[in-house]
Specification:
Elements: E1 4-7, H1 13-26, H2 40-43, E2 48-54, E3 60-68, E4 73-81, H3 90-104, E5 109-115, H4 121-129, E6 133-134, E7 147-153
Parallel strand pairs: 4-5
Antiparallel strand pairs: 1-2, 2-3, 3-4, 5-7, 6-7
C-alpha cells in the first residue's frame, strides 16, 4: 500500500478518530492503573512530534509520535495502524520516519513502554524487527509486570 507520511497536528478529526480506535483496542488489554496513554491534547505539546500515514485517498490509516525526553532520548508513543492496513508495512514506515526525525534532532536513543499481555504481540514484532531490544524500566513507568520496555540506540 502506498502511503504518505507527514508531521501533522493531532487536533484534527481524523487523527482524533485514530486515537479513539487505538484506545478502544488497547484499553481492554491492561488494568487501568497500568495504562499510560497520551491524550490528543497532550500529543499537541511542542515536545511531541506526530507522524500520520495517509492512504492514496487521503484517509488517515496510521500514526506514531515521539516525545523528546530532554536527555538525548525520545519516547515512542501512540503507534497505531488501522486493522484494514495491517500487514502492509504502514507501522514499519511510521516507525522508520520517527527514527529519521529523532536522528535529525541528534537524539541518541528511542525508548518505549508497551503492554505485557495477550494482544500486544504485533507491537512486539514491529519493534523487534525495527531494531528495538527489550530493556529494563524506562523513564518514570512502574515495572509491575503489565508492561514491556524497549530501547533502540541511534548511532550516527
Amino acid at each position: 500500500m502506498a502511503v504518505s507520511l507527514a508531521i501533522e497536528t493531532p487536533l484534527q478529526g481524523d487523527v482524533r478518530a485514530l486515537v479513539a480506535e487505538l484506545n478502544a483496542t488497547m484499553i481492554p488489554l491492561t488494568p487501568p492503573e497500568f495504562q499510560f496513554q497520551m491524550t490528543v491534547e497532550q500529543m499537541a505539546d511542542p515536545a511531541v512530534t506526530l507522524v500520520v500515514a495517509r492512504n492514496e485517498a487521503g484517509e488517515a490509516v496510521g500514526m506514531g509520535a515521539i516525545k523528546d525526553c530532554g536527555d538525548g532520548s525520545a519516547e515512542v508513543k501512540r503507534m497505531f495502524t488501522r486493522p484494514a492496513v495491517r500487514g502492509e508495512r504502514v507501522g514499519k514506515a511510521v516507525l522508520a520516519k520517527l527514527e529519521e526525525l529523532a536522528r535529525e534532532k541528534n537524539l541518541t536513543s528511542l525508548v518505549l513502554e508497551t503492554g505485557e499481555a495477550e494482544g500486544f504481540e504485533p507491537a512486539y514484532r514491529i519493534y523487534e524487527r525495527s531494531g528495538f531490544t527489550r530493556c529494563g524500566r524506562i523513564l518514570d513507568y512502574p515495572d509491575a509486570g503489565h508492561n514491556r520496555f524497549y530501547e533502540k540506540k541511534l548511532v550516527p
